Records
---
Amino acid sequence: MTTYTICVFTENSIGLLNKITIVFTRRRVNIESLTVSETERKGISRFTIVIKEESREKVEKMVRQIRKIVEVLAVFGYLNDEIAFNEIALFKVPTPAGAKRLDIETINKIYKAWVVYWGLDYVVIEKTGSEEDIFDFFNYIKPHGILEFVRSGRVAVSKSAKSLGDYLPEAEWEYYL
Amino acid sequence: MERNEANILTLDGMEPEVRIETNALMNGSHAVIRSLIAEGVDTIFGYPGGAIMPVYDAIYDYQDQISHILVRHEQGAGHAAEGFARLSGKVGVCLVTSGPGATNLVTAVADAIIDSTPLVCVVGQVSKHLLGTDAFQETDVIGVTMPITKWNYQITSADEVPEIMAKAFYIAKSGRPGPVLIDITKNAQTEMMSKPFNYTFCHKLLGYHPRLIPKVDQIQKAADVINQAKKPFLVFGHGIKIAGAEKELLELIEKTGIPCASTLLGLSSVPVNHPLYAGWLGMHGNYSTNRLTNECDVLIGIGLRFDDRVTGDVTRYAKQAKVVHIEIDPAEIDKVVKAEAPVVGDAKEALKMLIPLLNVSAHDEWIAQFKALDAEEEACITVPELAPTTEKIKMAEVIRMLSDKTKGEAVIVADVGQHQMVTARYYEFKRNNSFITSGGLGTMGYALPAAFGAKVGDPSREVVAIIGDGCFQMTLQELGTIAQSGLPVKAIILNNNFLGMVRQWQQLFFEKRYSFVELQNPDFITIAKGFGIAGHTCAHRDNLSDSLDAMLSSDKPYLLEVLVEKEENVFPMVPSGACVSEIRLK
Ligand SMILES: Cc1ncc(C[n+]2csc(CCOP(=O)(O)OP(=O)(O)O)c2C)c(N)n1
């Protein structure tokens, strides 16, 4: 199985997520992760969809089918080495009185993770990185017990030097930049 | 005044930023109708109900400009709009209510997307404040139709109407055409617009750019591949009709001497008696065309999507050939068959660019191969089918006689089943855009309403529906619509008292275990009479000619029932799972 990251740029309109996911469900492809946010242009959303798939051809067909959706402005499919990507994970770890103390220095210096919330008898630790980084940290912190664990799903930008503007039709965009 | 302006402005070659300005303040319902008029719509197929009543109230004021046809079931509205669109080349428009009205329309919408038919369906919806509450007759139509529309949108305020309607028409008819569904909440129909009604035609959208003119390098590559071919074979589909590229197609084959064949939906784009017309393709297509698909060295596909009914086992489809694929929808390129030379663009534009680059040529030996196989098919199937010794009439003789009597120039609308395949085989199309059928979805019940819609779309043409006894009972209530319109739509029921196509499969592939395929039919002619439509039954070969004459000479709607052989099979046939060259003559 190969991991593909599909970036979809769309108009920001109701129901679009549904229109996009239908392309995957029709072909029985499971979505590993999905994130949506507005881009540097007002009214343009960016979907980052991660799938695992054997056939590159099938991925290309899906990319073309997504492109057919009227509100979709551009679609790109990437292999891992073509993008810079990361995820965020949050860990809720118990710190009851008398338990083994968390080694904050190791957490910060070795694992590049940070405590973002101190509760009365637990902490919330944020870890940013690749899936492997996050699972390394997961294994490190596991002996303390994990009350809750959540990953954000991948965000990615392509390694090509092009900007969004090179792909999207010019119009009177309002830029956040 | 504003009206005339609208009619002028909707002519083709519309300039950017064409606007109709008025100072009229109106509610959303009037805006819907004014938008339709602006788009040049003269006919709506519809059925009223609670959630669309304000729009129906508005139509009442515009009856001199727009004609509304009341169908008997919303599916009928959809198929009628499809038939209308396919014969007239215009966008078919349906108007129905929420909930069951909308869900009844769904089959036709699914049919239209797969057969690339432009529709704009305006569907009523409960008021905005009731959305999502399971209100009376509330169905999430946007959710239901998302995968089967080219675009859909819910209008919730009157001010949105003109812009969304303009977008709907642009999307439905441009590029690869398809159905657009507009769900309009009741409050948007009743509330006043906050500004005067202005209509700006849509001619481009941010993310939607159908490519009409192909890239020059793609055309060059295609030309190179074609020019080197020793045994080229051209297969074409619905795209030729949609683009109106029949003339260019003829020019191409005549210049290059390349034999061509049609998909089911492409039929009638090349006259059957043309020396380079080899026949049709697919499961029940001709022997030569299927066999030689697996022998050609270059396969040129134009305006088709290589449906599995055309390709058979795709892993053994034309593997020896280099494929040139000319297609307006980029998602169809490489979807089924890998193209060595893909060309994305409108078929007419592509052919206009391609023809000058092609060498004048002839392929007599190659064509002789087709002719040899044709002779086998002729001897084994066609001759016996057309001169049967059976007691009962055979479907083939009905269709061929109809073809002769109408000189191959009628518009034939076939339903789905054996009669459809027989019609495609034996009607000798001589005139362009003369065959309408549900190809991609295979929707039983399509033909009667679609034939009616086609007749509305071009009353100058003779329209004959060919319908199975099973199919007829799916939409026969549209006889009421036809009777009320008085339009001389002709329909032939080929009655074999079976769901014949399914029975054929059960005979051939399920050891003749006839599982629920026999029909006890009503008296169809009495039913027609009940609707005020004349008709009669033909049971004997000796009466067939007179029967067809009676039907064709009537200036009113007419139903002819022909009692045919109960258990005949359609051949040739590519059994499912087989490859095209494994086509069977018996
Ligand atoms: C709505 C629908 N239901 C079921 C089918 C499956 N089907 C395809 S052909 C056929 C039989 C059609 O029977 P009839 O109208 O009598 O035509 P014949 O094949 O006998 O010519 C059936 C049931 C279909 N295509 N469409």
---
Amino acid sequence: MTIENKINKVSLKVKDLSVYYGAFKALEEISMDIEENQVTALIGPSGCGKSTLLRCFNRMNDLFPNTKIEGQIIYDDIDIYSQAIDPVLIRSKIGMVFQKPNPFPKSIYDNVAFGLKINGFVGNYDEEVERALIQSALWEEVKDRLNDNAFSLSGGQQQRLCMARALAIRPDVILLDEPTSALDPIATVKIEDLINVLKKDYTIIIVTHNMQQAARVSDKTAFLLSGENRCGKLIEMDATEKIFTTPFKKETEDYITGRFS
Amino acid sequence: MIKDDKNLKVRRSHRLRVKIEGKVIGFLVGSAAFITILVTISIVWNLAQQSLGFFSEISIIEFFSSTRWSPILIPREFGIAPLVAGTFLVMIISSFVAVPIGLAVAIFLAEYAPNNIRKILRPMLEVLAGIPTIVYGYFALTFVTPLLKLVFDDMIIFNALSAGLVMGIMIIPFVSSLTEDALISVPNSLRQASYALGATKFETSIKIVVPAALSGIVAAFILGLSRAIGETMLVTIAAGATPNLTFNPIESIQTMTAYIVQLALGEAAHGSVEYQSIYAVGILLFIITFAMNTLGHWVVRRWRNVY
Ligand SMILES: Nc1ncnc2c1ncn2[C@@H]1O[C@H](COP(=O)(O)OP(=O)(O)O)[C@@H](O)[C@H]1O
Ligand SMILES: [Mg+2]
């Protein structure tokens, strides 16, 4: 079997990225290319810095005091960490869905419409809300109860609502941080199916500690590992099939085969 | 180790001590709670009894429907409306100060202030809360009223506006600290979700955090205003002693609390109608503040968000 490496356009280019929380270096010199309309999985043991790396892509790390970032992430030909860039702008182009569903304590409709409102959208809100809910495969389940509180939904539905909320503002990239770890298997399958559909239109980066999930949903996989000093490094990144069948590095193989977790 | 006899003894005696301590503390706490309840019951009992005396002379219909309160000057009349109006007038004026400023202070402290500024501002608010109410009273009378007189030259020296404004200042720390608690209890995951959609800090505070904490904030307002209703010294000094059915803030009025003080300090004969009237006013005041406090706590429970 031959594995061909398709050449896709690069959406996000990470260059020598290091992240510090105060004096603690959480990530060291990460370089990688995130390709457009592909699903990139970030895998690795807990605490190796997957979430930290993910949060770099939409500058969510800015919200933690004492965080320092070195290196660059190039998006649309600009370094998103350059002085002139407003993180608020980045976040409206690079959306995020979190580990635990976190809908706002508002109606289903208002949850989806919120991003549109703050981004000054003028136009047909009903249409956009419907589109986002259809895209996140939630529309059929909620179309008759859009004014119900979001908390009336099940956990899996809440997570798809969070997807819809992120999709509503038409981002380019969607960051998913272990989006199914708080969900049951059926809800998990729904989210995974959704990811497969969404990659036609979006670039997706997903953090997962579940290797089967990475294998199921992703095109590219990056394996991160933290060493003695707890500092996370990128061990290797390649086509998912390759990582799971013939990884280049010994550490990757050990991790994949469950020799350490 | 368990077999070690000495250790076992020590342990046993320790366990016994813990047991006795538990009993003693339980007893002390229990009796303190019991005494509190007993005191409350006897206050209500006393209020009820004395006001029953009052209502055997003055019909409850006159009490609630008459618009004149003149307990001593003849023709005597006992219509509670002017005192209630005075009380609510001061409360409403105070809410114009305490609600927006209390909310703004709380949002600043909970969402914006860096740790070092928060560490300075919080104790400052506590100092504000610790100032004796009589000081606020004289502040209103001798500082705020003369200032207001520059604007409203036909204003009475003793007036609802000045007392209400200073009352508002007085309850800011109370409102802001309860509001801040409500804001802080909003989970960070909601703030992050908002930021991740490209919201600014201001948008996140106003459109996500405040609505999410709304029940707690409303309760803070209600409890704060209930305080304004029960407050006595400030209004006695600065708002006047003229039962006046008006909603004109620059007029002299009298609140329910101020009336109670006035009569209690006067020489009304024990058992006379005017003496008993302070209990009637007192029990109404008790019912109003009790209702507001209950409403405040109910709002918190009823609309508490399950995040
Ligand atoms: N806000 C933070 N402040 C300080 N240390 C953090 C913070 N977030 C994560 N860390 C630390 O950085 C390391 C990587 O964390 P994280 O990115 O959450 O790992 P993962 O998502 O792979 O489990 C861990 O050692 C964690 O304790
Ligand atoms: Mg993580």
